[in-house]
Amino acid sequence: MGNLSNFESSRIPSSHLQQQIDATGKADVEIAINGKKLTVPYGTSILNATRLVGVKIPTLCSHDDLCVVGVCRLCLVEVEGQKTLQAACAYPITASINIRTHTTKVRKARRHVLDLMLRNHYGECYACRRNHKCQLQDRAKEHGVDFFRFGHIKEKRFEEDLSSYAVVRDPDKCVLCYRCVRTCIDMQEVGVLEFINRGFETQVSTFMNKPLAEVICVNCGQCINRCPTGALRANDPSDKVWRAIEDPEKHVIMQTAPAPRACIGEEFGLEAGHSLTRELNTAIRMIGFDQVFDTNFAADLTIMEESAELLTRLKDALVEGKDIPLPMITSCSPGWVKFCEHFYPDQLDHLSTCKSPQQMFGALLKTYYAEKSGINPANIVTVALMPCSAKKFECNRPEMQDSGHKDVDYGLTTREMAQMIKECGIHLPDLDREDFDHPLGLGSGAGLIFGATGGVMEAAIRTAYEIVTGREVPFEGLNVTPVRGMEGIREASILIENPVEEWKFLAGVELKVAIAHGTANAKKIMELVKAGKADYHFIEIMACPGGCLGGGGAPIPTNDEIRRKRAEALYKEDASLEVRKSHENAEIDQIYEEFLGEPLGERSHRLLHTHYTPRGKRIGD
Amino acid sequence: MRDQRTREMLDQDIRRWVDKYSRERSALIAILHNVHRKYSQVSAHAMEEIADYLGIHPVEVYGVATFYSFYNAEPKGKKIIRLCRTISCDMQGKRDLVYALEHRFGIRFGETTRDGKWTLEYTSCMGWCDQGPALFVNSKPYTSVTTERLDAILAE
Questions:
Q1: Which fold has domain A114-234?
Q2: Pairing of strands A167-169, A98-100
Q3: Which of the residues B57, B74, B124 would you substitute to probe the A interface, choosing the one with the greatest number of A C-beta atoms within 10 Å?
Q4: What is the pLDDT of residues A9-47, one digit of tens each?
Q5: Which site among A127, A264, A448, A470 is 20 to 30 Å from A459 CA-CA?
Q6: In degrees, to the nearest 5, what angle opens at C-alpha A315 toward C-alphas A311 and A319?
């Protein structure tokens, strides 16, 4: 395990353990599962071994993205020769053993574990957000639970924490599986949630038991995606959205981000990796929204502004010799922005001043669109469909009112959107396909791939390279493959040759970029930036693993494989589009001509750019 | 002003203890012990300070501090009396002691006197079941305590 300390090596995601095991070089082990003989690599967990023979052992605390803890005790199995039952997830096979997975002893023990959990699990399934999406419920069904052997708690023990715009905590539904804590501490390295107290008093809570809105939560919502029950959920504004739709005075506009269309099908029983872009448009109109626009349009706008900002920074630094903060870092991911505000408050000038696409769009809807359509912006309600819980916080930032109104009224997650669609009795995959409304409904492929990690970088490279050299990026089919993939941190560089007159000073410059996703990886990059050791020009950082498509508002469950499939869906759709470069989007030309002037112009500056708040991570004072 | 000075002293002490015990996360309990012994409390500020030195999250320090009932996140009395609440002490006259202590200080168990000198608390079994009732005054144990002996014990 190399130079990792014992503590660090014990907290490796379970899906990565196999690599560690392979590295030991020990001989395979012959075992028997329910009498069936097979050979497994040394160190394989019983849980993984049983998958090879088609047995699915019940689990709650185990998650591919997280390290092994073995706390829920649902995966108990019998190992011949061992006095007690063993937790399959936490038992590495190192010798030839006989495993029995469903003896009476095992089934009885699992039932009792479940019965004990259900004893303290407050509430009824039909009054729960996670009904039909709950692993505790699934396990109870699989094990034929038909009564509460140890009773069922009738009174709430805890208050719901409704303080955060993004994440709601309901500790009464918590089964203490430790997934959210591992997500927050190990995977994201934010460190908001942890077990506090002891024994029966144990609960998941925050520093000094403060409400989520007062701690250093970055609203990424990754804890929600990993919670097996309804103890964590997004703060759902859909009732307010319904009210706006019913109000004849209100003109309700939906903008849909790239990631939700690539994963909303999962909420309707489809496999991961099916895009339902235009079916979604139909559904949104059926629900009663007045207009449906494409956030990809605003993503293209972001690229125009951000590339202009990057090139200006490069010019100022390289030609004028000014002390300009480089590398420049993307600011599309609101989870990442808040993370930076808390953990690197002195590095905020590296962030691009560009608002995220969602907020750019909001500001334009209540100015440009209002003007063009003759609708009073006070009567416009803008809703953003996002794969993200942090977007809910972002749209409620006090500085996001540049149109003179709240630029984006509500952020809906993919899950909440699916719920609204289901409530209307619509089965999304069956719908006809409809286009977006115009003039803010045309998005390029570059805008679309914002949904995947590396997408913003690829989109920016497609545009910036062409601005500088007058030629297309030197990659086959515009696919900037070096920036794609699921590695936590990726680096790439592009040599600039024969630039056009205006950008002559960039001749021979090797443009260096880096991409990080997940805030733990962001931390690694930021430590380099802070130490002045990051010789990149441009960095893309997304708060969630996989980028937006792994966002805290995306369908549950999530894992590496699902994230990969969602990314494939986005790249496939990008390749199928006619317009794949932000600067070739005709509606972008139109809005600059009619309204904004030029990138980084006065109006752009007022509506499309923002500033950040150094927050720091000390909250105890 | 006084708070400011206490905080500076606390910060210095923590730095000293960190140097003494190391910056590994395994040093946490030892540092918490020292902070608690001197300040009879582990404040939010102290937890954040310690977390910074050890490279862990404040909430992890909070998790450890709340796991052990002898650490206080809230300020408590200079002297904490912890009376065993387990059954054998119960059978050997615990109730008389509760009555005597509560009357003597004018507070209930779980409370702190207004002058910040005394706190009354229960504790789980300390292993002196044969010599009950037993209690702690801070870290010093007393066994076979009677109401008559209380004066002498508290005067120490």
A1: Alpha-Beta Plaits (3.30.70)
A2: unpaired
A3: B57
A4: 678 888 887 777 777 778 899 999 999 999 999 999 999
A5: A264
A6: 165
